[in-house]
Amino acid sequence: MRPRDMGTLFDEAAAGGARTMVHLDRPFDIAPRAGTRWTVTELAGLVRATAARLADAGVGPGDRVAIVKGNHWDCDLLACAAVRLGAVPALLSARLDTAVLVTLLERLRPAALVTTSEVLARCRDTAAGEPARILVTVDSAAPGAVHLAALDASRPPVPVRRHDDEPLVIHHTSGTTGVPKLVVHSTRTLVHKLARFEAVRYPGIGIRPDDVLANASAYGHGRTFCWTAVVMSLAPAGIVVLTGDDPETADPLLRAHPPTVVEALPASYIRLRPLTTRLDNAFRQVRLYISTYDAVHPPALRAYLTASRRAHPLWMQGWGQTETGPLTFRFHTRRSALAPDAETTARRLGRPVPGRTRLRAVDPDTLRPVPRGRLGLLLVRTPALALGYVGEEDRWDAKRVGDWWSTGDMGVHHRDGSVSILDRAADALPGMSCLRTEDVLEQRLPQALECVILGAPDGDPLPVVVTADGRLDPDAWKQATHGLPTLRQPAVLTWDEVPRTGTGKVRRAALARQLTGTAPAGTGRWT
Which DSSP string corresponds to 329-363? Predict the structure, then answer.
């Protein structure tokens, strides 16, 4: 089955005989009493019932529906229900700071807000007026809002079709450098150009009928909406949905349903890494790991590839953005992950997809192409480029360079066609790559969960080392920095002390302000 319409996706999968069993680590927020085991037919029924409830609340064709709730796959089910009504869902992370969330809602001006009573109270405390005309809560009743469960689910409307080039869904970017952008995709860009390309049983990396997929992601992000279309089309044997990244919570579910394919946020790979060293670890049957948000540092990459007992497990690393979808792909094996130069080659994120994506590096000031092998601002051309930003049309236009799109990433387009990402333009520092330095530090500091380099406008960069207990041996730090550019003494924090986006990325600007009181060095021109 090829994905066509996100509003009827689950109906079509069920009609096609999909026998996928879905296992959740906790019940859906929109069906809290329905358990943690679902068939595709039951999921199709849940989407229809949810669409009926939204219609009963007053949602109709063309309405924008903001969805803001806890991290779970039902974010995407709610989005599919809204699409079924001809509405345009906008998925926002509940982890956003309240002021940022209110700003995005003001840009959206949604007809309806589907949220929790806690998020609604936060918005009301900050915003000047009500965030939407229709207010629906998924967890409990709230003043002035209707509880989703109290709405009529018995009369699902006939699905509303839209033109392939009309707005389909809105997602926000990670927001590592400030207020996230609201990105609009159409059926053509997200379903036809992205999901259909992936919904093919490619040899070695395609989803097979006997696969069990585990996903630990941010389910309000554009990647999982596309992933939903892909997995429903390919109908694997099983799907395991992890909504958090606590190892003790994930372990029993993964052991009960050992995955053969794993996709996770880089932050989730970091948090779940202790499971790789356990006897009969939960990743022993994995043949393919997928990471699409950021490059995963080499120590974590090695740990997972070594944990698999398959003869030749693969790690597929994708580089892309919410605005573009995946742009390049790179594969790692045990051998490449253990190579002496793994710390530097890990930043090589593969080649553009042939026939679909073109890439060039330019001088960030003059926008003239730079020779292969030299650092530049990376521009891309792709038919999957989104339609624009909500409420920031000038910002969207500013990132267009003729027929090219500015990624905002600084990198090198090598002679063999591959690309290395060295830094975001907003984080770039003269004479060093923050990302490569972080890779080296993580390799040399086994106790580090994560390392972050922050540029300072008035001196050497500030390193931040994240450990389990917020401690770091001074001698270990001294040895780890041998041969590296001069750095300040590190700030040592625990995981929860670091400000993060909904996808687990470090909010570098917020972290710099938290530690130094000032914004980091770099420019935000291309963000």
Answer: EEEE-HHHHTSTTHHHHTTB--EEPTTT-EEEEE-
